[in-house]
Structure formats: C-alpha cells, structure tokens
Write the structure tokens for this entry.
Amino acid sequence: MIPRTVVIVTGAVILAVLSAAVVLSQATVKRMTFRPIASVRGVDVYKAYCATCHGDDGKGQGPSAAGLKVKVPDLTTIAIRNGGNFSFGAVEDSINRWKQVPQTMTDVLDIQQGRQALPMPAFGPIFAQLYPQEVNERRMRMSNLISYIKSLQVAQDPAQKK
C-alpha cells in the first residue's frame, strides 16, 4: 500500500506540471514596435506591418493571431464579404483609421498617438510618425499595400454563389 502522503505529493506535482504546460502553451502578444522600412513595395509593407497578425498568406493566421482577444480577419475574402467589390477607400480607411469615430477621450488619445484603441493598430498615425517627411512615399506605400492586399483576393466558389 502506498502511503497517503506520497499519493498527495505525487498528485500535486502532476497538477503543477500540467498547469505549467497549459500556461506555457497559451499564446501571448507582445507590444509591437514598428520601424520604418526602405521599400515602398506592397509585399514588403505587408510583411513588415501586417503579416504578424494576418499571416504571410493574409488568412488571419499570423504568429500573433492566437494571442489576440478577437479573430483576425481573413484579408483574402474582403471582396467576397462585400458582394464581390474590393473598395480601395474602405480598405485604406480600415488600415489608417483616420475616419474612425472615437467613443471616449482615451480612444482619441490612443488614435492620435498610434496606440491600439481597437484590435488593429491605427496605421495612419503610425505611418505619419515613421515617415514624417515623406508624404508622397507614405501615400505610395499605402497604395501599394492595398494593391497587394487586392492581389490576395480569392475568387468566390461558384457553388457558394446564389
């Protein structure tokens, strides 16, 4: 017969090991620091600023996605979700968040300072800080990024069309 103390200690050790394994397996998202990049190519801008959450393929499975509280959108289905339309302006608004209506003064400050008031950072203020003297290059980066995201769009499956 095994002494009761040995059973209790063994059970506690097993529970501690299992608890540690669960804690270590949970994904966490670090506060990201964005740095300027030299390239204005859409694919490079995407990889530098978007892929960590949206994934290299744009499907929302990036390395940081699991640690977020909300599901990261699949960027390859923007057109499908919008009746077959890919609106450059709407995508730019989603990325920049310049037209976002803040709910509180904290939201206003977060947006102005490029902090994460919503699940996705407001990249308008971030890009303005990263590239303060390069307005035309900033516009080119944004245009190229949106064109790259458009290139990721998948065609709607004919079986899913109504």
Notes: Residues 37-160 form a domain with the Cytochrome Bc1 Complex; Chain D, domain 2 fold (CATH 1.10.760). The chain has one domain: 37-160. DSSP finds eight helices and no strands in the chain.
